[in-house]
Design goal:
This protein has about 210 residues and is of the alpha/beta class. It is built from 5 helices and 7 strands, in the order ααββαββαβαββ.
């Protein structure tokens, strides 16, 4: 079966995520900006980068390498057109970051927001750990269950409804356990309010440095 993410046009994805009833594009943009400002990474990888939301906040005087990973080549094309001039160091990879064959040269920050719901969490975290330098940080965002709202809010962008067939909410406890098993120690966690009574869990995990 074709992955539903490959059937959703970029304009539908952005339109849905930015719509008044969802507002998640704006929230993820702010989270990425805050992660960059806090960590000031020399290198960063964005897993599930889609069309490059938040890339405009990358300070090229500080961050010398940027890796965007997504399975949808059309999303990557949009990101390439938008940011290749302002981010000449940008690497865009059409990859499933939970694949057994996934590998990148390690970075100092991995940002992975609203992606664990669509992948094998164990494989994904193992690959994230391998993708981080010792002392590097993972910033992960999960959608939490909302008693009165469906996981995928209905909007006029009907193509997003196909994601219901593959979406599985992941608990913060499950993510933290798998991270711990892969040498990623939880530093702290936050909660961010969304529309429709929904919330995001945002976890910060640091890769153990064997030298410490």
């Amino acid at each position: 079966m074709k992955n539903p993410w490959l059937t959703i046009p970029a304009e539908d994805y952005e339109g849905h995520m930015a719509s008044p009833d969802v507002g998640q594009l704006q929230v993820l943009n702010r989270l990425f900006k805050a992660a960059l400002e806090e960590c000031r990474p020399v290198s960063v990888a964005i897993f599930g980068c889609s069309t490059g939301n938040g890339f405009e906040h990358i300070d090229t005087a500080t961050t010398l390498r940027v890796v965007g990973v997504d399975i949808n080549p059309c999303y990557l094309d949009v990101a390439r057109r938008r940011f290749l001039d302002s981010l000449p160091m940008l690497e865009l990879l059409e990859e499933d970051f939970s694949s057994g064959t996934f590998v990148i040269h390690p970075v100092s920050l991995v940002f992975a927001a609203l992606v664990f719901e669509y992948v094998d969490v164990g494989e994904a975290v193992r690959n994230i750990s391998k993708s981080l330098e010792a002392g590097g940080v993972l910033v992960a965002a999960l959608q939490l269950p909302a008693p009165k709202s469906a996981p995928i809010t209905k909007t006029r962008f009907k193509s997003l409804e196909a994601l219901a067939t593959i979406m599985n909410l992941v608990s913060p406890e499950e993510l933290s356990l798998v991270c711990s098993e892969n040498g990623l120690r939880e530093m702290r966690q936050d909660r961010v309010a969304l529309k429709q009574g929904k919330e995001l869990y945002v976890g910060f995990y640091r890769k153990d440095d064997p030298g410490e």
